[in-house]
Amino acid sequence: MNRKLRFGPAGKPLKYKGKSEEVPRFLHELGLDAYEYQAVRGVKISEDKAKTLAQFAKEFDVELSLHAPYYINLCSTKESVIVSSVQRLVASMKAAKLMNASIVVFHPGYYGSLSPEEALSVCISSMNKVIEYAKSEGVSNVYLSPETMGKIKQLGSLDEILSLCESVENTIPTIDWAHLHARGKGAIKTKDDYLKVLCEIEKRLGSEVVKSLHMHFTKVSFSDSGEVKHYPLSAVDYGPDFKYLAELIVEYGYCFTIISESPLLEEDALLMKNMVKKLMEG
Predict the structure, then answer these.
(1) Edge-to-edge strand order for the sheet containing 34-38?
(2) What three-state secondary structure class fits 9?
(3) Of 33, 75, 79, 107, which is least surrounded by CB within 10 A?
(4) From CA 220, how far away is CA 192, in angstroms rounded?
């Protein structure tokens, strides 16, 4: 897994106009070194393009991850939905393997008519099916990465995501700070709020996992039902504030991969990198 602090965008950079498989070169020129390929509308990348993307990523030292389709619900009470969700995740893992992406980020699903406890149990069972199916297809070197979710009706509290990682092999969390902030109705306000989350992850999953976490960052607005809208880091009326996380990165030497989900994508990825750099330089 990642052993250096990295920053990059979720999806193709806003100012990039070239071929999708050559994005790493553009990011390298900007000073960024991570890229989350978005397969959120379906896994459509060809084998040739995936392999070319892998080559560019290796040449320009850009760490790749892949975000699986949104049409996944591993907590459904409908067997057909579970089956299709498992298939989409395995297809995502196959594509990730072709592009040498380290992890597949995904949204676990919705509680629906189930209690949170029931939904978690169904999700664990479904994820085990994903792992078994992936192994049968020769894919065993890509991590599944369930994401903390921002809406109250979604399975994806910090505790639930950590429970999934404890219960299913080859699984590590994606920590979306905006989602945690929104789900908790403004929960990430202070440096200590960040540290409590990181300490809980270390306690449950170990120091190696917490040191090199994969995470998403943006500012966000929220309502009683959770996340509403993403905002640039410059938006003073919204949280969470990246400066506290930047301070912890410097103090503890974390080697996170931080993916910008701000509306300004690569611009705010660079802003976060430069904030940390400035702190390091004292």
Answers:
(1) 34-38, 63-67, 103-106, 143-146
(2) strand
(3) 79
(4) 19
Query: CB count, 10 Å around CB of 98?
Result: 20
Cα angle 218, 200, 125 (rounded to 5 degrees) comes to 85
Distance from C-alpha of 126 to C-alpha of 88, rounded to nearest angstrom: 12
Please classify residue 22 by burial: count the beta carbons closer than 10 Å to its beta carbon, then call 0-12 exposed, 13-18 middle and 19+ buried. middle
- Run of H or E including 246: helix 242-252
Please determine, for residue 147, whether its predicted confidence score (pLDDT) is greater than 90.
yes
Structure tokens at 116: 């949170």
Kindly tell me the burial class for residue 47, based on how many C-beta atoms sit within 10 Å of its own C-beta (0-12, 13-18, 19 or more).
exposed
Give yes or no for a cis peptide into 263 (omega within 30° of 0): no
Indicate the pTM of the whole model: 0.97
Strands (E), 68-142: 103-106, 109-110
Residue type at 43 in one-letter notation: V
pLDDT at 249 > cutoff 90: yes
Average pLDDT value for residue range 39-43: 95
For 122-186, give the DSSP string.
Answer: HHHHHHHHHHHHHHHTT--SSEEEEBP-SBTTEE--HHHHHHHHHHSTTB--EEEHHHHHHHTTS
Backbone angles phi, psi at 216, to 5 degrees: -110, 145
Q: Are 130 and 90 in contact (CB under 8 A)?
A: yes
